[in-house]
Predict the structure.
Amino acid sequence: MIRRFLFLIVITWTALISYGGPTLADMWEDRVKTVVAVEFFTETELDRRSTNTFGVVIDDNGTIVFPSQAIGPRVSPKQLEDFRIYFPGEPTTQDYSATYLGRDEFTGWEFIRVDEEVARERLVPISAYEEAPEPIVTDEIWGVGLKKKAEDFKPYFMSSRVSVLQNLPQRTAIAMSEVSGLGLPAYDQDGRFVGLSIGGFGRSFMQYSSRIRGGVPVVMVNPDESAVVMLAHEILPHLDRIPTNIEGRPSVWLGTNGLQPLDPEVASYLELENQAGLVVSEILEGSPAEKMGLLARDVILSLNGEPLPVLKPDQVVITYFQREMSRRNPGDKVVLGILRGSQRQQIEVVLEDAPLTPREAERRYFDSLGMTIRGFTYRDGVQRRLELKDHHGVIAHFVKANAPASTAGLLTDDLIDEIDGVKVTSYEDAESILETIAQDKERGEFVLLVKRAGDTAVLRVKLK
Amino acid sequence: MLNVLLWVGLLLTPTASATSSGFERLLDAVVKIDVREVTFEGGTKRFGSGIGSGVILSKDGLILTNAHVVSPEAVEINVTLANLERVSATLVGWDHWTDLALIRLDMAEIKKRKLLFATAKLGNSDKLHPGQTVFAVGTPYGLTRTVTRGIVSNTQRHFEDSRGVRGYETGAFNTWLQTDAAINPGNSGGPLVTENGKVVGINSRGYLGADNLAFAIPSKVARKIIGDLVKDGEITRSYIGIVPGVLQDLEGFYELAQNTGMLIKSVDTGSPAAQVGIRGGDILLSIDGKKVDGRFPEQLPDIQNQIASHSIGATLKLEIFRNGTSHMKDVKTEKLISRVGEEEAFEEWGLSVRKVSRTYAREHQLDKSDGMVVIGVRPGYPAAVSGLSRGDIILKINRQDVTSLEIAKQQHEAYAERPTSVLVETSRNHRVSLYVFKP
């Protein structure tokens, strides 16, 4: 009798499992295969820095993406080396090499591809799982977090409930607490893919201490985990944006600088209800916007006939507009509806490939001088408010402490205008002059004319 | 408490070396100055107060003090004479560049009340030598008739500060006397005197936290400024827009003889010097045929003065050396203008502003010197509610360019009469934003 009863229970139990599908624990173990730990090295003038971050597998070819915040804005792709991945929870003595493919401006992802077949075979792309419908507030979502390298990037389970949904401008779910490692996927109760978590969000607190009167507002940022999930439909359509070069070209530009959103009071004053507007602070010289007659202080109201959407906070509309540009290609046409004074008009602009960025510019480190020079780029001119005709010289990209250049007073980001009384007309020029100086062991000094925040300084660099 | 006071009193007993009749007379010429002044901070007109020292120089009641003690913002000046009587005074003129101001006692009041005061004599600051004993007399922390003793530490200290006197520039046209006589807040404007009671300097500033590093304006500089302030009520200087630098150690590179020329560190954008093609890194060899020697920082104020003392609109012949050859450049001078523009509070908007000056525009790399900088907003008033904040530059009000404060005043008046929404265009870090002031 007892035996029969036990048998019955077992039957019922198995039936339940086959009816309800895999358990959360099973699903979790399975979904861990979509994530890896990524390590790479940044070669700088003085050292070699290692960075650890988390990546997510996006296809069957071993392609992995991770958020671009992992790579500093001053780092050139040429400085990045030795990409490798580790499987979560496995000994870090075993790594698998990967190749850097580049950054996609539109998605903000860095792409790498695992080299070894044996590693590729073990990876499961997020596309292997069904796309979840948009979650609603209170839905429980979960994901994988990874510990540090010292703990073999051991995976751990995280879960929370959706607390709010927002357009930032991408559709985003914000959970009550962290749901996955930064950049890693989140899933729903049925194991469907909800989205990828994103960084850059902090929580505001007041810090009280016995030493300081009153409270101090602080923002706390979790660098390893995130509670903010960009939803699947904002991600899946863009998984094919794999860069074809490490510079991330082509990259379009319009040439409208310093876009500022209209606040609701101003919009209502200008009789612009239920739509957003962007004030253009400046039109860049030689840009597509300038060629088509856009002017500083024009207010952009629509793109290809569509009014700019109202997004909160107001600043989000800037990101919206910039994304709309960066998703396009050089040669594409856009029609901008603008408000100039009290006149409305439409302006058609043909987008172009953006000028060289500081990331892409050539650089060279001279150890005996203690400085790195970098080619002058369009952006350097804009930052220094120089007219196009004055765009020349080279930038002091790095100045080594207590070395000849720093002792002479050279600072990072100084614009080097002349070397030894000779005007710097090109990067190659500067490189060859400095090369000659660095090679000449007899030389006692040389002189730099540098510009810094509108001032000029003559620096005498002593070599002996 | 009484003990402490007594102890301080003992310290104030004049030392044996300073009991000359000249010194006694000097003590009777030193005054305490209380100033009530208007400020435009925080979106409204407010009144503040300050204390300083001064020294009476003439029978008609002229008192020399610091520009950072009495400025044109003073609305009420009260002078406490050595006999502790209080008399009101008015501003004759100020010069923030040398940190000097001149005020005059209300002589009618003096006569009516039959008050007596002594006058001090200016000595020759050129004859001072390091190590010489000097005394500082003044009102540190409001303690009247305080004498401190020290020596001259340096007779030619170069010390420039681009916002040292109430945010105004100072020190470009003079060197300073350095002394170790104790100078504390409130000593400002008081005299630095020799044992015989001659005024050789006006105590101006000390390094906070340092031990007895204090600075005074030499009487030689003061003598000239007093004359010009009495005559014109202001000091007019010429400007060509070059920022000087020292040539020390660079002669070899430029292949110049020692003690020849001054380095031009940079040239102000749009200035007369820039217009004729002078630029940073050039060497100034001579002005109107007179050789220039700017090897050391101490020599720069003299060269600056040489340029500034020309009349406005005069043409200077500058010999400029660049890449091994020298060129003559004719530069027409402009009037030197301070970086701090006129201030105003628009109380209905709860907004205080300062006109953008040429120097401010240059420092912030603005294309034009139009507009006014927000220096304060009053919480809960239209400007603050709209989101405007300190540092924003107001360029347009109701689509009208703010080329002068007058335009803003008219707009504000119209608003005060009939409050309606006002559209304001601002720039901050070269980013243009719009705001609406709502009644």
User: Anything to note?
Assistant: Residues 1-16 of chain B have pLDDT under 50 and may be disordered. The first strand of chain B starts at residue 30 and ends at 39.
